[in-house]
Amino acid sequence: MSTVAEIISQYNAERPNQVEDQVKVLWLRKCERMIINEILMSHEHDLESETRVELKVVGSHLVVTGAGSFEAHIDSFDMDTPLLVPEPYDDLYLYYLDQRIALNNNDKTRYNTAAAQYNNALLTYQQYVNRTYVTKKIPKKLLNHTNI
Q1: Alpha carbons 98 and 19: distance in angstroms, whole number
Q2: What is the rounded CA–CA span in Å between residue 27 and residue 36?
Q3: Does residue 69 fall inside a structural domain?
Q4: Which end of the chain has fewer CB atoms at under 10 Å, N or C?
Q5: What is the pLDDT of residues 123-147, one digit of tens each?
Q6: Residue 146 domain-assigned?
Q7: Calpha distance 148→123 (Å, rounded)
Q8: Which residues, other chains included, contact 78 with Cβ-Cβ below 8 Å and sequence gap of 6+?
């Protein structure tokens, strides 16, 4: 897996820019959290044993617990942090940085191109996760939003 520093170094070498590396770290942290929330949390996975999540009902709310390792991953996010998306899917981080820089520069054409590349890369990674890991099964009774 690539680290934050490796992705930023590759990005800076391929696409010279004026954005501070610390800003890129914040953007990559945000991207990583979206990947965790939108893709990884909905699957049984073996990324780390502590990352198993547990679903329970509290009152009329569905609560997800046991995500300590992912939270620790995000909380300690810095240049040395290994990113969760493996090769060859890790180009999505580069496209995410393209997208953010284009947005900040108000370059709509470049933004649209970068957004399309990022969305395609994210979808490809999501399909990989869907093929590789089992989707969490939520018992139907948990979907009832009334108190009994």
Answers
A1: 11
A2: 14
A3: yes
A4: C
A5: 999 999 888 888 877 665 555 556 5
A6: no
A7: 39
A8: 4, 25
Rounded CA-CA distance 13/8 in Å is: 9
* Domain contains 85: yes
Question: How long is the chain?
Answer: 148
Yes or no: say if 70 and 37 are a contact pair by the CB < 8 Å rule.
Answer: no
Per-residue pLDDT of the chain (148 residues; tens, 9 = 90+): 789 999 999 999 999 999 999 999 999 999 999 999 888 888 776 554 444 444 445 555 544 454 447 888 888 899 999 999 999 999 999 999 999 999 999 999 999 999 999 999 999 999 998 888 888 776 655 555 565 5
Count of the separate structural domains present in the chain:
1
- Joined tokens for residue 50: 């502590």
The CA-atom distances, in angstroms, between 6 and each of 28, 77, 83, 91, 141 are: 12, 14, 10, 12, 45
